[in-house]
Specification:
Order of helices and strands: HHHHHEEEHHEEEEEEEEEEEEEEEEHHHH
Oligomer: single chain
Shape: globular
Largest sheet: 10 strands, mixed
Strand content: 35-45%
Structural class: alpha/beta
Length: 443
């Protein structure tokens, strides 16, 4: 077993054992003990695993071990308010905003603005009648999603449960902000449940100020004929490590539109796992990562078609500059019996410097008949032909390059469901790529 697996696991075991004594989560004790045992047995992933071939967690593991070996002061309103002031979008929101600061709920969900059909609660405050179902969901997500999910379950202190009633159509997005204000290793847990025929938009926004190592697990269940729009926006500190995974289950006729935007952190790894379990379920998954400076941004997606006549459309784009490195590994699996599946997987990357690097691997496995599936990836520099075309119409070369970058990025951003959020992301990108605003004004 490698150093990365053994040294931190010892510290994690002691820390997790202490966390298991959390009284409010006593009803999850068995689940968390099994998760702890699983993590100790496997340790952190290493580059010897094909899924982690391009992302080395040895330094991350050492930092987590260090953080867990010393007490972390609890988050205060002052500590995260400075972060929220950076969020102009919060001022324009009409729906509830929940804050998970350094792994704990900073705002009591019970005090959030009320919306018809929406119930918000802390996992630590779950009622006895709901505990069995929640424990089953947490167990399934933990056992199926690897060592980091097991670590999250073993160490979680609280958690947020978002429940949308059958037939409800939420009038405004639910906004979840995960902040890191201290150098710690917060374990955020979010459970989202859309019941039959409901509709909701949920935004999960990550912000940080420190070199924290956050590990977030989001578990989504969409019952038949429900519709979800989900946005994950990652803007952690340039010194932070961001680890996150989402498991999305879609039952018959359910539809989900997913959008992932990776703009921050020194090292970020995001795992998206979508399971199309019912006939007619559909998912659209789009992503954009911007790896400038020396950022390392790794996106892994896995979409599994388990039922007939299911549809998946996936498009991830990466912009990589300076000494940045982007990784994309997308896999679509069409299981036996999922006849009539329609799946398309595309990854496109734009290199803006000779020292930038991208590793991409789209994969397709088919075990069913009568399917329509495709996958592909491209990585390259700006199209010389397109630049020539623009220059032939009197546009300077530098401006032509900016226009092409802006077009490449905006095709993903147009999937944002909220104008205020789109403006916020555009401002963030413009701060890093100042040419974009100017380019947008060019006819």
């Amino acid at each position: 077993m490698s150093e990365a697996a053994t040294v931190p696991a010892t510290v994690q075991a002691a820390s997790a054992a202490a966390a298991l004594s959390e009284p409010a989560l006593a009803w999850l004790a068995t689940v968390r003990e099994r998760a702890l045992q699983a993590f100790v047995a496997h340790g952190f992933p290493t580059t010897s695993s094909e899924d982690w071939r391009y992302t080395d967690l040895r330094d991350t593991a050492r930092r987590i071990a260090d953080y867990l070996s010393r007490p972390v002061p609890p988050a205060t309103a002052n500590s995260y308010s400075a972060l929220l002031e950076r969020l102009g979008v919060l001022d324009d929101l009409h729906g509830p905003a929940l804050i998970l600061s350094d792994g704990t709920l900073a705002v009591d969900p019970a005090t959030a603005p009320v919306m018809a059909g929406l119930t918000l609660s802390a996992l630590s405050a779950a009622q006895p009648a709901t505990r069995t179902a929640l424990a089953e969901r947490i167990t399934a997500a933990t056992e199926g999603d690897g060592a980091l999910a097991a670590l999250n379950t073993a160490l979680l202190r609280q958690g947020l449960v978002v429940d949308v009633a059958a037939g409800a159509d939420l009038e405004a997005p639910v906004y979840i902000v995960c902040t890191t204000t201290t150098e710690g290793a917060p374990q955020n847990r979010i459970l989202i449940h859309l019941r039959r025929g409901s509709r909701a938009t949920i935004v999960e926004h990550h912000l940080g100020l420190t070199a924290a190592v956050s590990n977030t697990k989001t578990d989504v269940l969409c019952e038949p004929d429900s519709t979800l729009v989900y946005v994950k926006l990652q803007e952690d500190s340039p010194a932070a490590t961001h680890l996150a995974s989402q498991r999305v289950r879609l039952e018959g006729g359910a539809r989900a539109r997913l959008l992932h935007l990776d703009l921050g952190a020194q090292l970020a790894r995001n795992d998206l796992h979508v399971s199309l379990d019912g006939t007619g379920a559909e998912v659209s998954a789009n992503g954009l990562f911007f790896a400038d400076a020396a950022r390392h941004l790794d996106n892994h997606t896995r979409i599994e078609h388990h039922a007939a006549h299911t549809v998946s459309q996936e498009l991830y784009r990466g912009v990589v500059s300076e000494r940045g490195r982007g990784v994309f590994n997308g896999k679509v699996i069409v299981h036996a019996g999922a006849n009539g599946t329609d799946a398309k997987l595309t990854n496109q990357n734009l290199l803006l410097s000779d020292t930038a690097e991208v590793d991409t691997k789209p994969e397709l496995e088919i075990y069913a008949d009568e399917v329509r599936c495709s996958h592909g990836a491209t990585t390259g520099q700006l199209d010389a032909g397109a630049i020539f075309y623009l220059r032939s119409r009197g546009i300077e070369e530098a401006q032509a390059r900016r226009m092409l970058i802006a077009s490449f990025v905006r095709e993903i951003l147009r999937n944002l469901p909220d104008a205020a959020l789109e403006a916020h992301v555009a401002r963030r990108l413009a701060a890093r790529l100042p040419e974009l605003d100017e380019a947008a004004e060019t006819p």
